[in-house]
Amino acid sequence: MFEDSTIVALATPNGVGAIGVVRLSGKNAISIAESVFHGKRLSAQKTHTVHLGTLKDPKTNTLIDEVLATLFKAPKSYTGEDIVEFSCHGSPYVLQQVLTLLIKQGAVLAQPGEFTLRAFLNGKMDLAQAEAVADLIHAESETAHQTAIRQMRGGFSNDLKNLRTQLIDFAALIELENDFSEEDVEFVDRKQLLKLVEEMLKTIQKLIHSFQLGNILKHGVTVVIAGRPNAGKSTLLNALLNEERAIVTNIAGTTRDTIEEKLIVDGIVFRLIDTAGIREATDAIEKIGIEKTFEKIHEASILIYVFDASTSSELEVLEDLQKLKIENQKVLLVANKTDICDEQALGMLYYSIIENFSLDYPWFEVSAVNKKQTDELKEFLPALILNDKINTDQTIVANTRHHAALQDCATHLETIKEGLAQRISGDLLAFDIRYALHALGTITGEVLHDRDILGSIFSKFCIGK
Ligand code: GDP
Question: Are 42 and 122 contacting, i.e. CB atoms less than 8 angstroms apart?
Fold first, then answer.
């Protein structure tokens, strides 16, 4: 079995750093470490202690590095196994030497996520918590970070545990009832069961509902900035980012490819995409850019349509909006270049586009070069996709696997509800309850033993975690 092996990996990122940590975990972690470590005898030391020493190749007696060895003895360690961490000097060459040496002494290179997989298998954390570790590593904003921490500490799992226990109680009673089926008794108060099922459905629906937010926190929101050449898309992108990133030119159609930048507002990551201008393609390269624009627009959640308010007519704007074939996107209309625009003309434009056609798109009047109203535009973005401010105390489902399991569970709960209404027999009810329990159990890992599924979950981790 692979848990018999002692695994090793670099626990810090690749590349040059002040220090680099090499982590060993497994039954032989301490003896393998001892075979190359010169200082104190590690096996004789207490857990959670740090020791200075040198690493030498026992065959050639070559000195490899001066290190600190940190000792965690089973079961009080991240994986639940013996762990030794060597804090070495952070040169990739030295770290490679240390890894090679430890592999020579009997350790095997860890698979991605294998340390956390072992932690899960040793009952150090449940599956939802283990997955939160991966989310934490990849968190790009503070809110995503907070959500992952909360889940890692058991927030999400606790909510589910409670629901699961209540349902298990009912399952037990129903099974008991089935044992007495000859006598036609009912141990389970159907009304009470219905009440619990409805309560559970409410909680689960809330969790399912939070997935939209979870997804936003985890992956960010794609925002496409589109408009005709020279409308000021690149300038607006720079103003929103407060940086000079996109190339600004006054030759129409020069932003040929798409540029993606990250903007964080209220803890949400917005991926801003500047696109090639919308107009008839004049040459082949421009055409590719335009096709890409439409592709990006249809993938995005938010479309910021920018037009030059000093030159555009309402017909041009309306024609573009029609061309853009907006389907599921939230749309913002941005009248740019208000610094060189007549106020009355701007008012007319607003009237003939928004009022006249009863459009309910938010309308912003900005001057991208002067950053006038661009901060207001930025602050407005979260409200487009969220009804409320994010509350990180709330349990948020951010994992596709969990979301699917919750939906599965909800379906079975609905079946129980229908079954109760139709007064179906106890053994059929028991069947549906077991299905619902199974769905919940797959989230925390109670009923998940399939190595393939575990492998695919943990393979998303990086090596060394
Ligand atoms: P894009 O083709 O839509 O990306 O447009 P650019 O951002 O490259 O801008 C085209 C030209 O319009 C540049 O010369 C910008 O300096 C100018 N421009 C952009 N925003 C404004 C603005 O708010 N006011 C004025 N007066 N000029 C602007």
Answer: no
pLDDT number for residue 126:
77
The residue to which tokens 């996520």 are assigned: 113
As averages over each run of 10 residues, the pLDDT of the chain (465 residues) reads 79 84 96 96 96 95 94 94 95 90 92 83 79 71 70 67 80 76 69 88 86 79 88 90 57 55 82 66 54 77 93 90 81 95 91 84 94 93 77 71 89 93 86 88 70 63 65
- Which numbered atom of ligand 1 lies nearest the CA of 367? 23
Q: Does the CB atom of residue 9 touch ligand 1 within 6 A?
A: no
Question: Which residues are within 8 A (CB) of 403 and not within 5 positions of it... i.e. 6 or more apart?
Answer: 208, 211, 214, 397
HEC readout, the chain: CHHHCCEEEECCCCCCCCEEEEEEECCCHHHHHHHHEECCCHHHCCCCEEEEEEEECCCCCCEEEEEEEEEECCCCCCCCCCEEEEEEECCHHHHHHHHHHHHHCCCEECCCCHHHHHHHHCCCCCHHHHHHHHHHHHCCCHHHHHHHHHHHCCHHHHHHHHHHHHHHHHHHHHHHHHHCHHHCCCCCCHHHHHHHHHHHHHHHHHHHHHHHHHHHHHHCEEEEEEECCCCCHHHHHHHHHCCCCCCCCCCCCCCCCCEEEEEEECCEEEEEEECCCCCCCCCHHHHHHHHHHHHHHHHCCEEEEEEECCCCCHHHHHHHHHHCCCCCCEEEEEEECHHHCCHHHHHHHHHHHHHCCCCCCCEEECECCCCECHHHHHHHHHHHHCCCCCCCCCCCCCCHHHHHHHHHHHHHHHHHHHHHHCCCCHHHHHHHHHHHHHHHHHHHCCCCCCHHHHHHHHCCCCCCC
Strand partners, 270: 221, 263
How much is the pLDDT for 121? 81
The pLDDT, as a whole number, for residue 56 is: 95
Look at strands 49-56 and 63-72 and give their pairing: antiparallel
Q: Is 244 in the pocket of ligand 1 (CB under 6 A)?
A: no
Spacing, Cα 303 to ligand 1 middle (Å):
19
Backbone angles phi, psi at 456, to 5 degrees: -70, -30
Position 184 scores a pLDDT of 65
Does residue 339 have its Cβ closer than 6 Å to ligand 1?
yes
- If one residue of 308, 312, 369, 377 were mutated to test the ligand 1 pocket, choosing by the most ligand atoms within 8 A of its CB, it would be 369
Half-sphere exposure of 30 (CA within 13 A, CB side): 18
Q: Is the CB of 61 under 6 A from ligand 1?
A: no
How, if at all, do strands 49-56 and 268-274 pair? unpaired
